[in-house]
Amino acid sequence: MGFRVSTAWPIQAATENRTGPEVHALSGLILFFPDPVCLKEILEREFFMEKIFKLKENGTTVRTEIVAGLTTFMTMAYIIALNPNILTDYGAGGQDLWNGVFLATCIASAIAMFCMAFLANKPFCLAPGMGLNAFFAVVVANIMSITSMGYVQSFQAALVIILIEGIVFIALSLLNIREKIVEAIPLGVRLGIAPAIGLMLMNIGFGSNIYIADENFNQFFVMKDFFGALTAKAASDTMGTAYPTMVLSVVTLFVGLFVIVLLAKKGVKGAVLIGMLAASVIHWIGSFAFLQVNPFASLEKASWLPPFGDMAATTLFKFNFQGFVDIGAFTIVTLVITFCMIDMFDTIGTLVGTASRAGMVDKQGNMPNMKEALLADAIGTVTGACTGTSTVTTFVESASGVEAGGRTGLTALTCGVIFLACIFIAPIAAIIPAAATSAALIYVGVLMLQGLKNVKFDDLDQMVPVALMLIAMPISSSIGHAIGLGLISYTIIKVFTGKAKEVSLLTYVISALFLLKFFLIV
Predict the structure, then answer these.
(1) Do 358 and 407 contact (CB within 8 A), yes or no?
(2) φ, ψ at 8 (rounded to 5°)
């Protein structure tokens, strides 16, 4: 493969018939013509991509899908370091365990996304779920207290719970039971999922995604501590040494947000990614110029060699079945059901909400290839258990890639490849400022609110469940719990207004399970 260079002159030579690629220097202008071998390879790759991902059918291109995958990666890259921090109680389990969970996070996420790409051909990206990983860490601590085992042994016992959950999900997916559960969610409730996710994304962007810590490790947040302060002086006095960093973060966030908005209004493809990059540059320059901090200092001492030995010693197929049995049958059943319910409805909510925003659903709100998408999620969870991490689920940040134009599995494949590459280049991902990713999350959240136009606000059967989800999802940070509240309210309203027959049997069952989850299961 290559190029031939010609000094043909004059300009007319550029328009002559040719059988091969030539580069003509015409009045200082270089024109490149690919040679037949190169062109053949390009066409073959295009044909392969088209055949696998049906790009034209979905109204997208290779470039758009790759940009979308990179955009999604940048908004969810935080999980690469945060997940091992949470699962190891910020190093309490030792550096070896931290390294093992780090590799497990990258590998399990990548495999799950490859499954999403090739089984479902959907642009949804997966990784160990936030909330579920925190719950896993609590379970590990409880196992320690119940069995008197050390952290690593308790961690390995908890992995058995995740393994069982994943196997259950694979069975439910293959038997179409999870798909039936999706269909059992009333249309009115489904219509509220995307807007509720939008509010949750905005809450994450303005809230937990950006926190600034002072020298005493006190944490401060953009909305609560910066915009919530009565005056700038009050904010400065409260935050002390953290205030300059907070100001830079706020500036970074809004620069990124308005760059995205302005580019999107002009129809620029890749607006989200460009906005995030612009915000990152602003933050890096501000760190140098105003904070006298080198934002790339972490790269100097970074390790670029994957710690596979630590993973093999601590997490890779390291199931502690005896410690699992010692937990007790009732506790085991309770934990498995809890993990299953939270993950199931988090995933369903993310898929339905994001697919609705992308126009991937039919008039009944059903998404094609839902079974395959749920199966990818289940395979990811089993892979996570085998490699050493908590439940793998579809990330709500996938909405950023969808907004960037992602419509096929090539988006998920791109993001998965980058996650796998992070085994070697994780330090680079770590220098992306949180404020830059918040800009994307807030923008996507605003767009997802547009789904409210489909809700019948004069119909309380729809309005009440949707309103509850809109407030519950951002406050609880749980998509599954918000859907549960929506289903319970929908069912109660129908039953006590003489419309009990309009509620499906499965909806009754799901509502009852959520009532048990909220009030009886501890």
Answers:
(1) yes
(2) -55, 145
Could you tell me if 338 and 517 are in contact, meaning their C-beta atoms sit under 8 angstroms apart?
yes
CA distance linking residue 411 with residue 117, whole number of Å = 8
Residue with token string 């497990």 = 104
Q: What is the DSSP letter of 223?
A: I
Kindly list the averaged pLDDT for each block of 10 residues, start to end, along the chain of length 522.
Answer: 36 36 38 51 69 92 94 90 85 87 96 97 93 86 90 96 95 90 84 87 85 85 91 93 94 94 86 89 94 87 84 96 90 85 85 82 81 94 96 90 93 96 81 86 86 87 93 88 92 94 91 87 53
Per DSSP, the three-state class of 127 is strand
Handedness of CA 336, 341, 346, 351 (dihedral sign): positive
pTM: 0.77
Rounded-to-integer distance, Cα 402 and Cα 198, Å: 13
Is the Cα torsion angle 217, 223, 224, 227 positive or negative in sign? positive
The answer to whether the beta carbons of residues 47 and 37 sit under 8 Å apart is no
**376 vs 374: CA distance, rounded Å:** 5
Type of residue at 472: A
Cα angle 394, 399, 403; round to 5: 150
* Strand 4-6 relative to strand 22-26, pairing: parallel
| 105 Cβ neighbours under 8 A, 6+ residues apart | 79, 80, 83, 84, 127, 128, 389
User: How far apart, in Å, do the first and last CA atoms of the chain sit?
Assistant: 64
C-beta neighbour count of 264 within 10 angstroms: 19
Residues ≥6 apart with Cβ < 8 Å to 228: none
